[in-house]
Design a protein that fits this description.
This is Amine oxidase domain-containing protein. It holds the Pfam family NAD_binding_8. InterPro entries: FAD/NAD-bd_sf (IPR036188). The chain folds into two domains: 116 residues, FAD/NAD(P)-binding domain, CATH 3.50.50; 182 residues, Polyamine Oxidase, Chain A, domain 2. The protein has seven helices and 18 strands. The strands form five sheets. The chain has a seven-stranded mixed beta sheet with strand order 7-6-15-16-17-14-18, covered by helices on one side. Strands 9-2-1-13 form a four-stranded parallel beta sheet, covered by helices on one side. The structure holds flavin-adenine dinucleotide.
Length: 319
């Protein structure tokens, strides 16, 4: 792609779209980034919640951390680290055997470096979207993409029918742009008609989709019987992971001495619930029931889990 007079639309301001937009803009390409959400991050998300007494809490309720496995990515991440956008999470992880009621397989810190966004997982995307040459438009769902043969460009239209402009290239970072799931959520056909690109259609189908619920919890005191900052569940039908969010670097813990945790459901549990619920946004009652189920399972570990001062479930459609 030559930079001269190139105009690119990037759909999605998650980590894929934000990195892509920033790399293109650094090479002089004019980039417009669209995201349905209110801000950047996608599944590298941080959520703000307010307790009944007005206390603000924040949870990384999507990806809890990331690791680096190539030199090229390591170079990019060390640049982010130098800018204060990410930090290493020096945490100890283990596995909790639900049947034996014991932790095992302690993974001492340093085995695999774990990185987190600072002060939240979304900080990297937020910062990349502000770079020179990137125009970010949030709260805009791309509803239609038409290839204009005459002008050799793509014309984008929003879900509510607004013209979003013409672009030489489009980078779509979410398979929703061509998936029937888009129709389930919006009642409209997906933006991109993949019948024109059968090979691409097969590739899209092969991208796995695993549903999951996240459970956000805050406790007035640290969980005394949990010796690690993150653990996977072995032999649990409904829980797969738990992470102590407040132990990450750069997090402000409110109220003092409190601890926040994010638990992740198994895909099997989420599929069962979602099959009953359907593809649309779950009701508050349905989410409250999920929160109750998952918290019961957490308490059943025998780890002396007290009543939380905050509890809420969030549904992730894909993973
Ligand atoms: C609970 C949870 C735990 C996870 N744990 C891990 C982990 O431990 N390790 C790991 O490597 N990964 C993990 N992941 C996966 C990781 O978060 C994702 O792979 C990664 O964040 C995906 O980034 P992305 O930019 O490709 O997509 P996304 O972050 O999904 O971004 C896509 C963006 O596109 C936007 N969008 C879609 N369609 C449109 C449209 N038509 N118009 C406008 N905007 C649109 C969406 O709003 C979204 O913001 C986890 C994910 C979740 C949810």
């Amino acid at each position: 792609m030559s930079a001269a007079a190139t105009n690119v639309a990037v759909i999605g301001a998650g980590i894929s779209g934000a990195v892509c937009a920033s790399l293109l803009a650094a090479r002089g390409v004019a980039v417009t980034l669209f995201d349905s959400g209110r801000g950047a991050g996608g599944r590298m998300a941080q959520r703000r919640e307010v307790m009944d007494d007005g206390t603000e809490l924040r949870f990384d309720h999507g990806a809890p951390y990331f690791t680096v496995s190539s030199d090229e990515v390591a170079r990019v991440v060390s640049g982010w680290e130098a800018r204060g956008l990410v930090a290493e999470w020096k945490a100890m992880f283990a596995c909790f055997d639900r049947e034996a009621g014991k932790f095992r397989d302690f993974d001492k810190e340093g085995t695999t470096k774990k990185y987190v966004g600072v002060p939240g997982m979304n900080s990297i995307c937020k910062s990349l979207c502000l770079e020179d040459g990137v125009v970010a438009r949030f709260g805009v769902t791309v509803g239609k993409m038409d290839w204009l043969q005459n002008g050799s460009s793509w014309s984008l239209t929003s879900l509510d029918g607004k013209d979003l402009g013409n672009f030489d290239y489009v980078v779509a970072t979410d398979k929703n742009v061509a998936s029937h799931k888009f129709s389930g959520l919006t009642g409209r056909p997906p933006p991109l008609d993949l019948s024109v690109f059968p090979n691409l259609s097969t590739m899209f189908q092969d991208i796995p989709v695993r549903p999951c619920f996240a459970l956000m919890l805050a406790f007035s005191e640290p969980l005394a019987m949990v010796p690690v900052q993150g653990f996977s569940f072995y032999n649990s039908d409904s829980l797969s992971w738990a992470f102590c969010d407040s132990s990450k670097p750069g997090r402000v813990c409110l109220p003092p001495n409190s601890q926040s945790w994010v638990l992740r459901s198994t895909a099997e549990y989420a599929s069962k619930v979602i099959n009953n619920m359907g593809p649309r946004k779950p009701s508050a009652d349905a989410l409250a029931k999920v929160a109750e189920d998952l918290f019961k399972e957490f308490q059943a570990t025998g780890l002396n889990i007290p009543q939380p001062i905050f509890i809420k479930a969030h549904r992730w459609s894909v993973f």
